[in-house]
C-alpha cells in the first residue's frame, strides 16, 4: 500500500461517519476517492444541486451559507481542515440545502456517492453504525427543538456579546470597541458551549462583518446587526 493511500485512509477514518468502518472498507474508499484542488472564490456546490458525494477538507477554508428571505447571505459555518461536509446528502440522496464557497485555496478529498454505496453494500457493520448516527442526529434535533425557546448557540452568543458591549465597550454610533479581552473559553463558559463552537461562530460573524478581532480585542462593526441576531423576543 502506498504512503498516499495510507494518508487517505487516515483522513477518512477521522470522519465521524467512518470511525467504525472495516479496514477493507477504508481501503476501498481511499482507492475510489480523489483529490480536488480548488481556487479561492470557487463554488463547490449550491443549494438545490444533486448530491455528488462527501468531502473532507485537507487544507484551506470553506464557507457554507444560505440566502435569507431578504436575499442576504448568512454564513452557517466556516469549514476548517479535517472537517467533513456534504454528509447528509450522501446519506439521504436529497438535493443540497446550502451553498459552499472556497475562501482560501483548498485541497479536498472527494468520496463520490457511487463509491460510498458500493462499500455500504459490503459492510453491514458500517450500515449499523450509520443507523446509530442517524438516530443520534434525530435525538439531537429533538433536543434542539425542545430548546428552541432559548434560541440556538449563535443567537445566544450574539445576545451575550451585545450585553457585554453595554458594560465593557466604548460605543460610538453603530460600532463598539471592547476595553478588555474576552477569550473564546470565557465566552464558551458563559454560554455552556465548547470553545470550538464559539470559534466557528465568531469566525462567521467576522466574515459577515458584524465584528472583527485583533490581538484578542473584539470590535463590533455593526451593533444593529448583532442585536438583531441576538433577539430573544
From TrEMBL:
GO MF annotation: an example: DNA binding
Q: Give the InterPro entries listed for this entry.
A: cNMP-bd_dom, cNMP-bd_dom_sf, Env_Response_Regulators, HTH_CRP, RmlC-like_jellyroll, WH-like_DNA-bd_sf, WH_DNA-bd_sf
Residues covered by the Cyclic nucleotide-binding domain? 17-137
| CDD domains with a match to the protein in the record | CAP_ED
Listed A to Z, the keywords are: DNA-binding, Kinase, Transcription, Transcription regulation, Transferase
Q: Which domain of life is it from?
A: Bacteria
> What is this protein's name?
cAMP-binding domain of CRP or a regulatory subunit of cAMP-dependent protein kinases
Amino acid at each position: 500500500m502506498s504512503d498516499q493511500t495510507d494518508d487517505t485512509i487516515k483522513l477518512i477514518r477521522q470522519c465521524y461517519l467512518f470511525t467504525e468502518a472495516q479496514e477493507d472498507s477504508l481501503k476501498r474508499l481511499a482507492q475510489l476517492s480523489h483529490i480536488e484542488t480548488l481556487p479561492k472564490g470557487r463554488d463547490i456546490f449550491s443549494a438545490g444541486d444533486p448530491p455528488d458525494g462527501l468531502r473532507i477538507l485537507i487544507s484551506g477554508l470553506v464557507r457554507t451559507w444560505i440566502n435569507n428571505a431578504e436575499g442576504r447571505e448568512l454564513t452557517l459555518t466556516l469549514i476548517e481542515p479535517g472537517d467533513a461536509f456534504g454528509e447528509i446528502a450522501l446519506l439521504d440522496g436529497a438535493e443540497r440545502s446550502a451553498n459552499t464557497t472556497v475562501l482560501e485555496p483548498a485541497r479536498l478529498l472527494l468520496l463520490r456517492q457511487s463509491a460510498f454505496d458500493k462499500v455500504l453494500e459490503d459492510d453491514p457493520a458500517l450500515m449499523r453504525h450509520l443507523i446509530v448516527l442517524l438516530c443520534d442526529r434525530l435525538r439531537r434535533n429533538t433536543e434542539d427543538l425542545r430548546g428552541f425557546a432559548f434560541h440556538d448557540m449563535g443567537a445566544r452568543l450574539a445576545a451575550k456579546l451585545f450585553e457585554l458591549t453595554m458594560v465593557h465597550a466604548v460605543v460610538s454610533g453603530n460600532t463598539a470597541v471592547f476595553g478588555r479581552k474576552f477569550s473564546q473559553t470565557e465566552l464558551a463558559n458563559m454560554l455552556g458551549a465548547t470553545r470550538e463552537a464559539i470559534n466557528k461562530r465568531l469566525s462567521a460573524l467576522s466574515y459577515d462583518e458584524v465584528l472583527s478581532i485583533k490581538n484578542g480585542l473584539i470590535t463590533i462593526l455593526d451593533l444593529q446587526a448583532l442585536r438583531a441576531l441576538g433577539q430573544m423576543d
